[in-house]
Amino acid sequence: MARCFVSRQLPGSALDRLAEQHEVEVWAQELPPTYAELTEHVEDAEGLLSMLTDRVDAELIEAAPKLRAISNYAVGYDNIDLAAAAARRIPVGNTPGVLTDATADLAFALLMAAARKLTEADAAVREGGWQTWEPGSYLGADVYGATLGIIGFGRIGRALAERADGFSMRVLHTTRDSTHEDLDDLLEQSDFVSVHAPLTPETHHLIGAHALAKMKTSAILINTARGELVDQQALTRALEDGLIAGAALDVTVPEPLPADDPLLQAPNLIVTPHIGSATRTARERMAELAVDNLLAGLDGQPMPNQVPAPA
Ligand code: NAP
User: Fold this and answer.
1) How many domains does one find in the chain?
2) Is 255 a known active-site residue?
3) How far is the CA of 307 from the centre of ligand 1 (A)?
4) Which pLDDT belongs to residue 219?
5) 157, 158, 212: which is closest to 190 by C-alpha?
6) Same domain, yes or no, for 195 and 218?
7) Are 145 and 263 part of one and the same domain?
8) Distance 209 CA to ligand 1 centre (A)
9) Structure confidence at residue 233 as a pLDDT band (50, 70, 90)
10) What predicted TM-score, i.e. pTM, was given to this entire model?
11) Does 256 sit behind a cis peptide bond, omega within 30 degrees of 0 on the bond before it?
């Protein structure tokens, strides 16, 4: 029986399976543990079930001498120092696949909402700003038949393309091997640009001033990947100056954005609270997979979804 720390309560009953075999402590507070609290709670843990809000860096791993398995409750694992884990031969698991459709659905929902100014229109009705039906108000962009540029054509990017197919959209995409010219081409041609690459040193601020300047002034940017892929200062300026027509972000830096962050003052912006995978089914399936990964890791078996150790 190993001691496990789970840094948040999870939906569904997956944690019961973990508790049948191991001694489990679940962080039950409303806010995630701070870095200091996390360090304290992993000090004598053999298993860690972490969230994307937990920074599992070299120092934290060093502070946990008994740690034998890390299972991240997310498909992204940019919050984990993979090299530090590999140096200790600690396997790291993630939860791909089970959240693909939920996240692609949200990306398409953000695309539609931004195209048709849904949040602005809803707010106008509630706040009494809507006086009467008008031919020239709340004019949005056509989605049907438009061009969608998908940056990062993995599970979620491809799932978004399937949805776009139902709207007869022309889909362009880039991959990790695409050149700067390929990306510029996608940005210049797309009416909507949706970001689905992982956060890596190469993708940090992939959408900065240069990329935003390449986009059409009528284009809309959607980001459901990681906030760091977009240079938010450059995005704020692009929205203020009308360089692009709008943006819809499920992810930001930091999360949440402080109420006085200049980005929140920019026009034509929708921000949601990192809810890409937030359907009951997806979150429960993520919990099952995260528990399967941790059980296997503690057992000395390959995890069902084990992140490859860095080369
Ligand atoms: P995935 O299947 O690994 O797809 C990511 C794709 O991006 C891969 O095909 C990858 O290629 C490609 N890529 C890597 N670097 C690139 C670059 N510089 N330019 C263009 N493409 C690049 O991952 P996924 O399951 O689709 O998830 C994608 C990301 O979405 C995750 O990493 C996570 O950060 C984010 N996410 C967010 C939420 C949310 O709640 N908002 C939910 C789920 C996922 P290679 O395979 O060759 O590296």
Assistant:
1) 2
2) yes
3) 13
4) 98
5) 212
6) yes
7) yes
8) 22
9) very high
10) 0.97
11) yes
